[in-house]
Amino acid sequence: MSSPLTFPEKFLWGSATAAYQIEGSPSADGAGPSIWQRFSHTPNNILNGDTGDIACDHYNRTDADVALMKQLSMQAYRFSIAWGRILPEGFGAVNKPGLDHYDRLVDRLLESNITPMATLYHWDLPQSLGDRGGWLNPDNAKWFGDYAELVFNRLDDRVKLWATLNEPWVVMDNGYMHGLHAPGHRSHHEAAIVSHNLLRASAEAVRRYRTVGKNKIGLVVNLEPKYPASQDPQDVAAAQRADAYMNRQYLDPVLLGKYPPEMQDIFGDAWPAYTPQELNDLREPLDFIGVNYYSRGVTRHAEGEWPLHAKTVRQPQSTYTETGWEVCPQAFTDVLNWVKDRYNNPPVYITENGSAFYDPPVAENDRIEDPLRQGYLKTHLRAIHQAIQEGCDIRGYFAWSLMDNLEWAYGFSKRFGLVHVNYENQKRTPKESAKLYKRIIESNGRCLF
Ligand code: PNW
User: Fold this and answer.
1) 63 within some domain
2) Catalytic residue among 167, 190, 224, 284, which?
3) Is residue 380 part of a domain?
4) Domain of 291: which CATH number?
5) Is the minimum distance from the CB of 140 to ligand 1 under 6 angstroms?
6) What is its EC number (predicted)?
7) Helix, strand or coil, per DSSP, at residue 398
8) pTM value?
């Protein structure tokens, strides 16, 4: 238990990024293309035609970016590994320079006393696997396991925290249900298959980890608690469906051994009846759950809305971020308590949390005043502290994001960074929120109170 006005002694303070969003140089040193490279180079998928060809040029600026983290007092860094840099075809021949790149990044982090957390899959599937059906192909789980094992063998002596997949819900919903992300499909038949294959892949990676790894591995999910807009039974049922779809769909099978009953209502005939054996194969114990939290959803029944017959309703009294997400720190405390109660208080890392707001231009004195992002950071950290006081086992916090980056379909138009990136000259400028976060880290959260 932590003393009332501080965080647990070993609480880990860090920030997060993902390969395709920051690295650039997607084809450097023998890497194979990813589905995001294909998707971003197909017209009208990404705002303003932006791509990850250069992004933050982090691939060529690794040392300077690690030095920046150190300057900001970061204790941990969550990054993702681009599968196609390691295995250009997704399986088969290994591209050694790709492994060397992440090896070097890990060494630089450790030299700076920064704990690495590596995510194996943050959406950049090798295009050659995309050509074989991507996550629709049942063999993808085995290929993911082979890739994961290769990376474990190279880095587990130094990487103590691993994540299998980032946000399977977003892969399924944005990638295969609504076509907003790569590969841009719109099919609930496909989405149902993809959900299951993603969980099979995560479980396969965890099984491999138990044979060759010695540290900790988890799965990262995005959680958005759903509240009914009224006590009307239709709204209550709509909120339940939305909750099953977004929050329970991935955690229930892994931690409780079954899919939520609502899956059948949502997907209809597209949802297969899984055998006990198939369900059992998903139930591979994790060392921690990674929780990404951004917002809540106040939910109303809505007949035409596909496939949930539910929609999120705007709250006139609330603040909204530039990605249209309601700011609600109380829901963060609620959802962490929900994880504690429903899943028997597993160890949790907050693997992402943050906000996009318009930032003013960099001022003469290199200051970037971002009061809304600072407010978001403070109130959400207090919400986590509250959850810890209420008994939740929260081990660390990774702010999304270390720096402004390619915000997927929004391109570079939305800025989540604690550090501002000038995309003309790649200059990094810590925003006032980064300086605030530094003070928070250095006081282990005491300055929040
Ligand atoms: C996460 N939603 O994406 C991702 O892990 C990051 O790569 C991304 O930059 C960040 O959040 C900010 O968007 C999400 O619709 C995308 O609920 C969509 C949702 C949640 C998270």
Assistant:
1) yes
2) 167
3) yes
4) 3.20.20.80
5) no
6) 3.2.1.21
7) strand
8) 0.98
| Number of compact structural domains in the chain | 1
Smallest Cα–Cα separation from 427: which of 64, 77, 104?
Answer: 64
The verdict on the CB of residue 321 being under 6 Å from ligand 1 is no
- Index of the ligand 1 atom closest to the CA of residue 356: 12
The answer to whether 122 is a known ligand-binding residue is yes
Question: Quick check: is 424 catalytic?
Answer: no
Compute CA distances 262 → 32, 151, 235, 238, 308, whole Å.
39, 36, 15, 10, 10
Q: What is the pLDDT of residue 3?
A: 58
Nearest CA to ligand 1 atom 21: 222
Q: What is the pLDDT of residue 4?
A: 75
Of 161, 160, 132, residue with least CA distance to 144: 132
Give the structural domain span for 33.
Answer: 12-448
Q: Is there a catalytic annotation at residue 89?
A: no
Ligand 1 site-directed mutation target among 56, 121, 294, 353, most atoms within 8 Å of CB: 294
Is 169 annotated as contributing to ligand binding?
Answer: no
Q: What is the pLDDT of residue 142?
A: 98
326: Cβ below 6 Å to ligand 1?
A: no
- End-to-end C-alpha distance for the chain, whole angstroms: 17
Half-sphere exposure of 41 (CA within 13 A, CB side): 11
Ligand 1 site, residue 18, Cβ cutoff 6 A:
yes
Q: Is 408 annotated as a binding residue?
A: yes
pLDDT of residue 322: 98
Q: Given 224, 262, 284, 352, which residue is catalytic?
A: 352
Give the distance (Å) from ligand 1 centre to CA of residue 365.
32
Residue type (1 letter), 93? A
Q: Kindly state whether residue 391 falls inside one of the protein's structural domains.
A: yes
DSSP sequence for 168-192 = HHHIIIIIIIS-SSTT----HHHHH
Would you say 402 and 415 are in contact if contact means Cβ atoms under 8 Å apart?
Answer: no
| Distance in angstroms (rounded) separating the CA atoms of residues 149 and 209 | 7
**Positions in the chain short of pLDDT 50:** 1-2
Interface TM-score (ipTM) > 0.90 = yes
The answer to whether position 244 is within a domain reads yes
Place of tokens 């589905």: 35
What pLDDT is stored for residue 5 in this prediction?
Answer: 84
Question: What's the CA-to-centroid distance between 211 and ligand 1, angstroms?
Answer: 32
Label each residue of 257-324 as H, E or C.
CCCCCHHHHHHHHHCCCCCHHHHHCCCCCCCEEEEEECCCEEEEECCCCCCCCEEECCCCCCCECCCC
